[in-house]
Amino acid sequence: MMKRSILALIVFGTIFTGCSTVQSIIRSTFPYTAILVVPVTSKINTEQSATSQASSFDQIFTGQASNTKSIRDVRVATVKIDATSPSGQTLGVFKSFKIYISRGDSSKELLIASRNDVATTVGSSIMLDADSTLLVDNFIKGSTVRIRVEYVLRSAIASDINLKASLGLSVAPNTAK
User: Fold this and answer.
1) How far apart (Å, rounded) are the C-alpha atoms in residues 49 and 37?
2) Tell me: the pLDDT tens digits for 125-139?
3) In this structure, are residues 33 and 58 in contact, taking their beta carbons and an 8 Å threshold?
């Protein structure tokens, strides 16, 4: 009986001390996402933008802000844009994209990814060129993360286009709390 108690205590201790590592894995595996709307009234050959609040995996499933004290050295590893509606929409109607990140309580923003040569034959998804050298800890550790996309349309669109921007983050566990 005593051996089971000690074993249970060891297992519990391992799980408890591994929380920051688990949080780090979750945050680097599951992206921040934002849905951005490109209105049908957008002009062609003109730089325009759309902004939306981003959500992380743990915000979506727990309804609470992230445990950002458990991570450090947050970098954007990947940035992907998907056309989610209308059905069958391709991203070939766009010439270029730039993605910025900001905190909801600040006007300071940071360019984290771009693509200037969107092909007319691209499908409904595209990977942007992410700047993985930038640390975005100060943006991610805020209460609200905002994503802004600047875009240039190549041709007129028939209806609003919903874009899903997904930011894949790479992080290190913060072992010195």
Assistant:
1) 9
2) 999 999 999 988 888
3) no
